[in-house]
UniProtKB/TrEMBL annotation:
Source organism phylogeny: Bacteria, Bacillati, Actinomycetota, Actinomycetes, Propionibacteriales
Protein name, per record: HTH hxlR-type domain-containing protein
Domain of life, source organism: Bacteria
Location of the HTH hxlR-type domain: 9-111, 176-274
Organism: Aeromicrobium alkaliterrae
InterPro entries (UniProt xref): AMP-bd_C (IPR025110), AMP-bd_C_sf (IPR045851), HTH_HxlR (IPR002577), WH-like_DNA-bd_sf (IPR036388), WH_DNA-bd_sf (IPR036390)
């Protein structure tokens, strides 16, 4: 599993460009998003994302080569593999958390579909706030003072063409995953570069064109998109078209946590021999900036293990007696069975323990796996109190249009007539 940063070529694309080349592609970001949600196998990605076989194959190969996924063969004949997140991709959780919050606040028509976030430390539903690790103060865009580092320049920060831009023939409807407006900004490598330039103070068409080295038609298209979603606002300067300026709106400035955390991730995992691409100082305390996310309820720094993603359609923490059981733990065990394709675990009512795990399993076609086989496998790998008390083999899992499993539909028959029937 990849733990060490990648060493870049002297004089070549720097950490910023490498990050934009990887994450500035909507298919890549969607695959990583679902990977961190627990999707592991090729068929699961196909079921969860509106993507063609050719594109999924190429992106999985790319992410494996770049150390963001690890390919593990779990069945030699016929050969079958799963793709597990590495330390490099798991450390992207702050970026995704920042994206969730930005969409929730600035895309009202879309906010209802986003999962709620609960802080396990204080027990509150929360909103993540960007802060400075050194002083603990909330970080605002105006307080971040950025200068080019030894490997920093506009030419070296332009993303390499690691992936090509998605075309309509590759599938999908243009509404990507849970983050439609984010994809308009971050799901295209030139969009990402342009928003970064805007945060560095560029405002004019000619400045974007010269600095980024992009074709004028592409710059014009991106500026039009950013204006349509309310991220940049065109300002007529003295009636002269050549003096037209494009300034960040409040919505655009609110995207700063995503940009800051993505840049920080880039410097963590891509090292240029000359040094950092960007040197950022927190103007309030004067220290080199290390951005963190904090809980707006208790003020404590967040860690990935303390953030619970919950929604009305997905309860992943079960209370069984005095034990807390994570549905993902049971799902991961059953997914390790070579004859299992997909798993979803819910909590069903139990008179003695309050809740008990129930597993819904989709088996590989022709595998011949039975419910008894699955019970035996769970018994070998789980403690008695964590084993599912019921297992149902079904043809497919119910899903939303964005690929999320509808656990509410799975729970409904078990909770009918109980107080928590709609939980």
């Amino acid at each position: 599993m990849t733990e060490e940063p990648a060493e870049l070529e002297p004089g070549g694309t720097n950490a910023i460009g490498r990050m934009l080349g990887l994450l500035g592609d909507e298919w890549t970001l969607l695959i990583l998003q679902h990977s961190l949600w627990g999707v592991r196998r090729y068929g699961q990605f196909m079921a969860a994302i509106p993507i063609s076989n050719a594109v999924l194959t190429s992106r999985l190969r790319l992410l494996t080569d770049e150390g963001l996924l690890e390919r593990r063969v779990y069945q030699p004949n016929p050969p079958r593999a799963e793709y597990r997140p590495t330390a490099r991709s798991r450390s992207l959780w702050p970026v995704l958390l920042a994206i969730w919050e930005w969409e929730r606040q600035w895309v009202p028509d879309h906010a209802e579909g986003l999962p709620a976030m609960r802080h396990a430390v204080c027990g509150s539903d929360f909103a993540p706030v960007l802060g400075c690790r050194a002083c603990g103060e909330v970080l605002h865009p105006r307080d971040a003072q950025a200068d080019w580092g030894p490997s920093g320049s506009w030419p070296r920060s332009v993303p390499a063409a690691v992936t090509r831009r998605r075309s309509d023939t590759e599938g999908g409807s243009g509404q990507s995953g849970l983050f439609p407006d984010t994809m308009a900004i971050f799901g295209n490598r030139w969009s990402s570069a342009l928003i970064g330039a805007a945060f560095r103070g560029l405002t004019r068409f000619s400045e974007f064109e010269t600095s980024l080295g992009a074709p004028p038609t592409l710059i014009a298209d991106r500026l039009k998109v950013f204006g349509a979603i309310g991220v940049l606002e065109p300002i007529d300067n003295l009636g002269r078209s050549d003096w037209m300026q494009y300034r960040l709106t409040a919505k655009g400035r609110a995207f700063f946590p995503v940009v800051a955390l993505a840049l920080q991730w880039a410097e963590q995992w891509f090292h240029a021999p000359e040094g950092a691409a960007l040197e950022v100082t927190h103007g309030v305390c004067g220290n080199p900036l290390t951005a963190i996310l904090m809980c707006d309820q208790c003020g404590q720094p967040l860690s990935g293990g303390d953030v619970l993603v919950v929604s009305a359609d997905q309860h992943d923490l079960l209370m069984s007696g005095t034990e807390h059981i994570e549905a993902a733990e049971v799902e991961d065990v059953l997914m390790a069975h070579p004859g299992v394709r997909e798993v979803a675990v819910i909590g069903a009512p139990d008179e003695r323990r309050g809740e008990t795990p129930v597993a819904f399993v989709v088996v590989e076609h022709g595998s011949g796996v039975s419910v008894d086989d699955l019970f035996a496998f769970a018994g070998e790998h789980l403690e008695p109190d964590r084993r599912p008390t019921a297992i149902e083999v079904i043809d497919s899992l119910p899903r939303t249009a964005t690929g999320k499993v509808l656990k509410r539909d799975l729970r409904a028959p078990y909770w009918a007539g109980h107080d928590r029937s709609n939980a």
